[in-house]
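DM from R.C. (forwarded with permission)

"hey, sorry to bug you on a friday — could you get me a structure for this? deadline for the figure draft is monday and I only need the backbone to look sensible"
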Amino acid sequence: MKPIRIVTPPLGANVYLIIDEKIALVDAGGDSSFLIKALQRFINPKDLDYIFLTHSHFDHAMAVPDMKKFGCKVVMHSLEFDLLKRGLTTLGYIYYFEPDVLVRGEETFELGEVKLKVIHTPGHTAGSVCYYEPDRGWLFSGDTVFKYGFGRYDFPSGNPYDLLKSLELLASLDVECLYPGHEDVTEGNAKGYILKNLEVLRSLI
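My reply, with the result:
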């Protein structure tokens, strides 16, 4: 079993489809029509159980209002929802939705064989989270960290020192496969890339 990567417009954000006893997406992208057509290659969108949001920037979450019509539950951090309500994460785009499950970090969601642990990783936004599958060493990192780099911290609620602490936390995990919000997937030695990015960030701030 591996996550299915779907690269979505308008900014090439990665969406990950996990097909288990319960079917889930990590993030939803910014174009619901594109996402629905892509999902139909693998599942009936009505069978989707969860959307786990890493954060609520438009390129990761603007498709959520349309996707909620299929009846799936949307999971996001409570701080991120506060930012969304204030319009601080939409970056000029107009969209809004209410999550079904608010998290704060440390919660675990069992999809079947796959278990996703919520890790609060502020820095890119105050309510950014990653989802960690400890048995497989999977890390769905959103815009917190990529193979070569890390998320911007100059958006509303971003903070470089928070991001540094978040990367330190992620570097302490056994991460084999990195599934970021943009750019390529890393399958094998993903922890090494996180450690390198941590050192780069330390040198910048």
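R.C.: lifesaver. The first helix runs from residue 32 to 39.
me: no worries. The chain is about 25% helix and 25% strand.
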